[in-house]
Amino acid sequence: MINIMLSYPCGLSYVRNIRNKAAHNSVILNSITNKSGIILDITRANSLASELVIKAKVSRTVRRKKLSISTIHDITTTLAIYDTFIESETMKERRYKELLKRAQREKELYAQNDEIISVYRYFNQITNYLIETL
């Protein structure tokens, strides 16, 4: 475990950010669009997140926009770290499908919000890529 923390210290801090938001009942949807999220300097995006979106064939424009939003960047990094360190393909597939299913829950509430639909499509593309590569 110590080697993991030494190899990916900044990546784990992004995972911690998402964990803290969930643990303290922060509404992640409030900070998932560029109108309300903290904007990051895209040149400082975590390499794990960048590598994942490149492999998932997310376009350069979408990649820049989405990874500049801190919450999206942190969730993307969390997915990359999960995929890297969880060895069970069965578990990964089950969790990715669970994530896709959960994202569809209450979808009619967000049907008129183009920004949330765009974020959904971004994570859908990444998650489907992760499932396909198992």
TrEMBL record:
Domain of life the protein comes from: Bacteria
Coiled-coil ranges per UniProt: 86-113
Key words, A-Z: Coiled coil
Protein name per its UniProtKB record: Abi family protein
Species per Swiss-Prot/TrEMBL record: Leuconostoc citreum
